[in-house]
Write a structure and sequence with these properties.
Elements (H helix, E strand, L loop, with lengths): L3 H10 L1 E7 L3 H12 L4 E4 L15 E2 L11 H17 L4 E11 L6 H14 L9 E3 L1 H7 L8 E12 L1 H14 L3 E3 L2 E7 L8 E7 L5 E11 L5 H5 L10 E12 H4 L4 E5 L6 E7 L2 E5 L3 E2 L9 E2 H14 L12 E10 L3 H5 L11 E5 L3 E5 L6 H12 L28 H9 L2 H11 L3 H10 L15 H10 L5 H8 L11 H15 L3 H19 L1 E2 L1
Parallel strand pairs: 1-2, 1-10, 2-7, 4-12, 10-19, 16-20
Antiparallel strand pairs: 3-6, 4-6, 5-6, 8-9, 9-10, 11-14, 11-15, 11-17, 12-13, 13-14, 18-19
Helix pairs in contact: 2-6, 2-11, 12-13, 14-15, 15-17, 17-18
């Protein structure tokens, strides 16, 4: 476990250039970019890194083909460029994924329009995607996805985007920020911001460590509010009567057995319920179906899937995979997240919808030392972070801020892979599924994880016999990846909670004894940690009526 006392001491005794509030993908990106430009950086997160939106996405790094429909060409161009950068700098975490898009009689998007849109999609990627789109006839579609409905099928197309592990992409970004010199602390909540009344005075930030209740006052030249759905709460610390800057859109996904759906790869669908673009995605033993998009009616701490959300997704999937006959009992897990859309499009809120709201971000600067970023999407986080640091630079008087961001050319941790990295791992580990998992999650650093199992063979055992996650990965997460709780381990460092019907509760009973000595837990603390996990699993994966 990282020495939290040392981190808190650093937080209290260093005058930072930039203190980032929020450890999702945006905040992590800002901390990394700023640290690599030579700034003194702190990052504080009230829960765990990626605990909010950044672990509840569709797990796609994509150009955003559905945004073409709304004319957001600039966003698609930027996202296509960023997808290309991430495929190069994080090849273990961001992997090419081919999509099949079937077209049926009477579809809202006819085949000619789909092909024209995909040609534009390729063009906005400067024809430098993994591969160009390819038109498919009926036979071509069924050859790729034989479980699709045949009735009314007119053909379709295949195109390329990329898949990721959103939580681990966020974590890798945080770890690279640490490597560049940033002070980071999860489970530490900002309770107060005090902007200076005189030039030259620092911003004062009160931070409470949720694990120890210790309180420190940090000082910094600039605070970056990158709290996503919680961004308005941070803003109100300095503007109690300020208008909302974030428009929340709730998105729900379900995981069902891949064997029931029968998809061979990723499929893009137009829901037979309302015509909305949605995805059927491969995810190990599961198929993920998503997503819904409705205005968020509850706060980000309370947002959950409802039975109506689940029914919509199952009905949509069954409409295209008729032999699946998915029922409520087939759902392995269901989860909801809030997309923090910039509230510049409040008209969408007033009209009761969010689908047409732009995913482009908004950066606001208070000359007293507060920069707030809202909106954006997972794929474009790196570029967005660079723009945030650029926006903060004029507030850092007297500091030599390196002019250009370096993150476009710097691999994320583990991102320099040997051509035969996977083969080497399979030979060393002897379990192909575990080896593949470790390479995909850790890249070239898989050796660091497996070395723990080599020293202590019991750590080579799976924590769930049906899943490729071993004890060594949990120990590594505590000792090297800033994990502090069972939810950190089973929801974000690994996706066990998403892939088990009990949301990881049984795995938590296996994990707790493995990590208890590292975290200083006695029997009573283990019991509390398990109770905390059960409550967190219910909060994240429970389904409301």
């Amino acid at each position: 476990m990282t020495d939290r006392a040392a981190a808190l001491s650093t937080l209290a005794t260093t005058r930072f250039d930039l203190l980032v509030v929020g450890g999702g993908i945006t905040g992590a990106g800002v901390a990394r970019d700023a640290a690599l430009r030579g700034l003194r950086v702190a990052l504080v997160e009230r829960d765990d890194f990626a605990a909010g939106t950044s672990s509840r996405s569709s797990r796609l790094v994509h150009g955003g083909i559905r945004y073409l429909e709304h004319g957001h060409l600039g966003l698609v161009f930027e996202a296509s460029r960023e997808r290309r950068i991430l495929l190069r700098t994080a090849p273990h975490l961001v992997r090419p994924l081919a999509f099949t898009w079937p077209v049926y009689r009477g579809a809202r998007v006819p085949r000619w329009q789909l092909l024209a849109g995909l040609a534009l999609y390729d063009g906005l990627a400067l024809f430098r995607n993994v591969a160009l789109h390819r038109p498919l006839g009926v036979g071509g579609v069924l050859a790729r996805e034989p479980a699709l409905a045949r009735d009314g099928l007119l053909g379709g197309a295949t195109y390329w985007d990329a898949a990721t592990d959103d939580a681990r992409l966020t974590l890798a970004t945080v770890l690279d920020a640490v490597q560049a010199g940033a002070c980071v602390l999860n489970h530490a909540e900002v309770r107060a911001l005090d902007l200076p009344s005189r030039d030259g005075d620092p911003v004062r930030v009160r931070v409470v460590d949720a694990l120890t209740d210790a309180t420190v006052e940090a000082t910094t030249r600039v605070v970056v509010n990158a709290a996503g759905p919680w961004g308005d709460a941070v803003r109100r610390m300095v503007e109690p009567s300020g208008a909302n800057g974030v428009l929340g859109a709730k998105g729900v996904h379900v995981a069902v057995p891949a064997s029931r759906v029968g998809n061979h790869g990723a499929v893009t669908l137009l829901s037979p319920v309302d015509g909305r673009v949605m995805f059927v995605l491969p995810a190990g033993p599961c198929t993920i179906v998503g997503t819904t998009e409705t205005p968020a009616e509850r706060g980000p701490d309370e947002v959950r899937a409802t039975e109506a959300d689940v029914a919509y997704l199952l009905r949509s999937a069954n409409g295209f995979f008729p032999d699946a006959r998915l029922e409520r009992a087939d759902v392995i897990s269901a989860w909801a997240g809030i997309r923090p859309l910039a509230a510049a499009a409040r008209g969408a809120q007033r009209s009761g919808g969010t689908t047409a709201t732009s995913r482009e971000h908004v950066i606001e600067r208070d000359p007293r030392g507060l920069v707030t970023v809202s909106g954006g999407k997972l794929t474009t986080y790196r570029a967005m972070a660079a723009q945030v640091v650029d926006a903060a630079a004029p507030l850092l008087s007297g500091r030599d801020v390196r002019r250009r961001s370096r993150t476009h050319a710097r691999p994320l941790p583990g991102g320099v892979l040997a051509p035969d990295e996977q083969r080497q791992a399979r030979i060393a580990i002897g379990d192909d599924l575990v080896a593949d998992r470790l390479v995909q999650a850790h890249g070239s650093r898989w050796r660091d994880v497996w070395a723990l199992a080599a020293r202590e063979p019991r750590l080579a055992a799976r924590i769930d016999a049906a899943l490729p996650y071993v004890g060594a990965e949990l120990v590594h997460a505590v000792t090297r990846e800033l994990a502090c709780t069972l939810a950190d381990l089973l929801v974000r460092r690994t996706p066990v909670a998403f892939e088990t019907r009990d949301a990881g509760r049984a795995a938590a009973r296996v994990a707790a004894p493995l990590v208890a000595p590292l975290l200083g837990w006695d029997d009573a603390a283990v019991a509390r940690a398990l109770a905390d996990y059960d409550r967190e699993a219910a909060r994240l994966f429970g389904v409301d009526p």
